[in-house]
Amino acid sequence: MGLQVQSLKLRDWRSFEACDIAFSGMTILHGRNAMGKTNTVEALQMLTAGQSFRKPKPSQQILQGAESAKISARLEGDGRVVDLSCVIEPTRRLFTRNGKRIHAGDVPESLMSVLFNPDDLSFVKRGASYRRDELDGFGRQANRGYAKVLAAYQRSVEQRNRLLKDDYLDQQLLGAWDASVALGGATLLQSRLRLFARLRDHMVNIYREISEGEELNCRYECTLGDDVDELSRSELCDRFAERLEQLRPDELRRQQTLVGPQRDDVSFTINGRDARAFGSQGQQRSIVLAWKMAEVELCEEVVGDKPLLLLDDVMSELDEVRRDAVTRFVQGGIQTVITTTNLGYFPNELLERAKVVQFNG
Q1: Are residues 81 and 139 in contact, defined by beta-carbon separation less than 8 angstroms?
Q2: Which of 68, 112, 164, 175 is the most exposed place for a label (fewest CB within 10 A)?
Q3: CA distances for 190 relative to 176, 178, 257, angstroms
Q4: In sequence order, which ranges of the chain are alpha helices (DSSP H)?
């Protein structure tokens, strides 16, 4: 068994002045809305993924009236003990592992996490950036190299877009940024395609199981063309440079980079029909459920340990069939933290095994 969260301490964090919570393999945080359950999940995500799904400013995570906040977690497993903490000041966050300063990108090296919250249920219908962010968020946790390539590419695109907005454009300088964006984009795209292919294999199998035989197909839609899987990084770079040159007039008119990983998407079909246009709500929710389960399985495959699974108030949004699928999945030895307003969503056998923490305000 890998590392698991044993305890969490919150000090002047969000709505909490002070809160200490002990965890087990299955922990259910139960209580009315606005009692701090999601704030607790956010703290766990910060100490495992190094970032929050809410994308807040540091000042927004500090209890009103306090100067700073601190969240700490103790992880244990395989004979190891790891203490993680984050001090939140109004303009920055300071992470430590066993008392030594680390960067936010280093945090997942101890324990990765997979979060599933109600916003994810519109995964199929939302804009392309949401699906790209989900894929990159997993890649960022699983591999520091992925995080560095992504950050470098994003900076290059931002710089190039600024240049495209310049009233007195330096064509020679633009050519230099074309080369930088093409190389960075090719590197990111190659990594993203490999990650997507592995995730897709797990996802298709999981979806077939929870949908009783329906066939899901997932496709990476790339602005560089449909044959990118077959290209080397050098060939991708050349293709990218060609597309930038072809689109130069449009990019100058629209003042933004129109091709590259920052504009790619992921599409889904069920039994050959577009899930976005024709999928039922149940089918679309099964897709995101399969995606999250696939992330859990792939995490174990990539890093050798199961992640922490965080389920924030999703059981109330799923029908009985999909709640049963979640219940079966979390009983497979994955440390899971679930928030809910209603314990009736869970079978008695799961409640008997779980640690139930009451949130009463």
Answers
A1: no
A2: 175
A3: 22, 18, 19
A4: 37-49, 128-142, 144-164, 171-210, 233-246, 248-254, 275-278, 281-303, 320-330, 348-353
